[in-house]
Specification:
With 307 residues, this protein is of the alpha+beta class. The protein is built from seven helices and eleven strands.
């Protein structure tokens, strides 16, 4: 009895296996045949109404174009950091054309510069220079880059027109006479901002930074374009200036001067090469940038002492 049951089970399993195999064969036969490569229609242009598709051979060309679009070189900003001796391209200077006006007889306009501080307004600046706050429009006329005179911000550079008496010869016709405030040696080091004449000379400029950061300021190291060839010594200190807008004469259109702002100071380290040196930022009122000008403090102090 047991033997019959065992034989029956074996036969049943064999029958089920055969049926399963036949079902798989039927499913495979029921699938549609894959089109051969020969039957694929050629994507050729020429027949009207036929859509043109890109061939597979064109795909690598597209990838090649994408690869060429990726810059392989170091960005200019990084290159300036790694190569401090490289020349710095100067940005196009902005110009401030002075307003043409009738100057009272026997007077001349002397231009001064002022940096807006927190809490300032044209009203109190006019009171500071003219002893009359109602003359605030005199300042605004020389600083038309300020769109709304009620809104000035700390750091704005203002040109302040002041009037001084001058002796004129009767036979000389009166003209619009505008000049810059006279700068004495050493005074520029004491000022936060001034209008420098076109022949004002700097000793050098910041040529690079030691470490690339979001902001270069107090305690950071920079490179200057001066070295042993320029007789640079350790511990020498330089004042850092930033050149701003050009001041244009109202009548002649000639360049009168450049707005210059003092933004900090540097001290040279012992790392001095032929034409480049490393300096430490010991004072920074604003973040320093590559291209900012520098002037030796010792020269300024010596010139001030000689007077």
């Amino acid at each position: 009895m047991k033997r019959r049951i065992l034989v029956f089970l074996v036969c049943t399993l064999l029958t089920l296996g055969i049926c399963f195999a036949e079902a798989q064969e039927r499913d495979v036969e029921a699938l549609p045949e894959e089109p051969s490569e020969v039957e694929i229609p050629a994507f050729e242009a020429g027949e009207e109404g036929e859509e043109v598709l890109p061939a597979e051979e064109e795909i690598p060309a597209v990838e090649a174009e994408e690869e060429t679009a990726v810059p392989k070189e170091v960005p200019a900003e990084e290159a300036a950091v790694e190569e401090p001796g490289k020349a710095v391209e100067e940005p196009a200077a902005r110009k401030r054309v002075l307003p043409e006006e009738a100057i009272p007889e026997g007077m001349e306009v002397v231009l001064k510069a002022y940096e807006v501080k927190r809490g300032d307004c044209l009203w109190n600046i006019a009171d500071l220079y003219y002893r009359n706050p109602f003359l605030w429009q005199e300042i605004w006329r020389y600083n038309k880059y300020i769109q709304d005179p009620h809104w000035i911000f700390p750091g704005d550079d203002l040109i302040i027109p002041t009037y001084q008496k001058v002796e004129r010869l009767a036979e000389v016709p009166q003209e619009t006479e505008v000049r810059l405030e006279e700068l004495k040696p050493g005074t520029e080091y004491q000022r936060d901002i001034f209008i420098a004449p076109p022949d004002f000379k700097f000793d050098g400029y910041i040529a690079g930074v030691k470490e690339k950061k979001l902001m270069t300021a107090y305690g950071d190291l920079v490179f200057i374009d001066l070295g042993k060839r320029q007789n640079v010594k350790p511990k020498a200190r330089y004042t850092v200036y930033r050149e701003g807008d050009e001041v244009i004469h109202p009548v002649t259109g000639e360049l009168m001067g450049i707005m210059v702002e003092k933004i900090g100071a540097l001290e040279v380290t012992t790392d001095i090469e032929e034409d480049i040196s490393t300096a430490l930022i010991i004072d920074s009122r604003k973040p320093m940038e590559i291209g900012d000008s520098i002037k030796l403090q010792a020269k300024l102090e010596q010139g001030e002492t000689e007077q």
